[in-house]
Specification:
The protein is α/β, with parallel strands linked by helices. The protein contains twelve helices and 16 strands. Bound molecules: zinc ion (ZN) (2 copies). The site of one zinc ion has 9 residues, from helix 2. The site of one zinc ion (ZN) has 9 residues, from helix 2.
């Protein structure tokens, strides 16, 4: 089968991956399933993997097939698989978990002590077929297109996970700020709108992104290139600040907003990454706000998100590309030229 594989870390996105002919995966354990990939979302994390940014955090053996936002049809199952069968259309939670460790039993799929992460630590879905496990797949309701929903496997679930944490403490009339209305941000904004009665402000440097935010439920939009973010948020919130800030950018400039815009006791959720946090410890003491990390989400949260998609509360902007165009996609994303989310459709 054809697969887009990383052979060496590089900053040159134009030649990041190569299309190789490799063996089709087969179930190696009784709970494995093989999925014929119909859609695999391209993610900023794929750019970061190619750059070698993950080598300090996880073990990777190259060459490796990337692609961790996968959906498609089950074509083969291990001997003991009971809950899904050949022919089912599924979205794949991005990690394969053991189900036995304490974290799995707590429902914390991402903390599984024996986790495998196709596309990050083992072969992923930028290929004709993907190996994953029964515990990772969620059957799709009729009428939900696997190509359209694929990016929710990571982009969507990650945005949803941060928003769910935020909405647990957002009361009607509280303020929420969404920083960055791109691939993840535009999903997060819709989840926030569907799940809370907070007043929502969206920040983005691009006019089209602010227009999109407007149409997706933001009550206010801010252009950080021409407006002073702290002043505007201060005006919108009568000086109180925003109880919850969800940062889909995660650069030095955006993490630096927190001391000025987060309400006392509030949270600045870090979803996008690549920058650093350099604020004085005193600012966290004075404001008693927190920076909170976001690592994908639980299997059950992906089920909940599928429900929001089926209800029509969350829709994705996607554009489709052939497997052979994968480096073009990487290059385009690097330059901010992808609208919404790019989905690779293997042959
Ligand atoms: Zn991703
Ligand atoms: Zn586990």
């Amino acid at each position: 089968m054809e697969a887009a594989r990383l052979h060496a870390y590089t900053d040159d996105m134009e030649n990041g991956l190569s299309i190789d002919e490799i063996d089709r995966p087969e179930p190696e354990q009784s709970d494995h399933v093989v999925v014929e990939v119909q859609g695999a979302g391209w993610c900023q994390t794929d750019n970061h993997i190619i750059e070698g940014l993950w080598t300090d955090y996880v073990e990777q053996t190259l060459p490796m097939t990337l692609g961790h936002e996968n959906a498609g049809e089950i074509v083969e199952v291990g001997d003991e698989v009971k809950t899904v069968s050949v022919g089912d259309t599924v979205i794949c939670h991005p990690v394969m978990t053991c189900g036995q460790c304490r974290q799995c039993r707590l429902g914390e799929d991402m903390y599984c002590e024996n986790v495998q992460f196709p596309g990050l630590t083992t072969d992923g879905g930028f290929a004709e077929y993907l190996l994953t496990s029964e515990r990772s797949v969620i059957p799709l309701p009729d009428g939900v297109d696997p190509v359209e929903i694929a990016p929710h496997a990571d982009a969507g679930i990650t945005a949803y996970h941060a928003v769910k944490k935020a909405t647990r403490v957002l009361n009607p009339g509280d303020h929420a700020v969404v920083i960055g209305v791109g691939g993840l941000g535009h999903i997060g904004l819709q989840c926030l709108d569907a799940m809370s009665a907070a007043e929502i402000t969206a920040l983005d440097v691009k006019e089209e992104a602010r227009d999109l935010a407007d149409s997706l439920g933001a009550h206010h939009t801010v252009d950080p290139t021409t407006e002073d973010v702290a002043t505007v948020i201060g005006d919108i919130t009568d000086g109180a600040g925003a109880e919850q800030v969800i940062d889909f950018v995660g650069r030095d400039e955006t993490t630096a907003y927190a001391p000025d815009i987060v309400a006392p006791g509030g949270d600045h959720h870090i979803v996008g990454y690549g920058g650093h946090i350099h604020e004085p410890s005193q600012s966290l003491v004075n404001g008693e706000f927190s920076y909170r990390g976001t690592l994908v989400g639980r299997y059950t949260e992906l089920q909940e998100l599928v429900t929001l998609v089926e209800r029509g509360d969350v829709s994705l902007r996607t554009s489709r590309y052939d497997l052979g165009d994968i480096n073009t996609v990487a290059e385009k994303l690097e330059h901010g030229e992808i609208e919404g989310r790019a989905v690779i459709t293997p042959p």
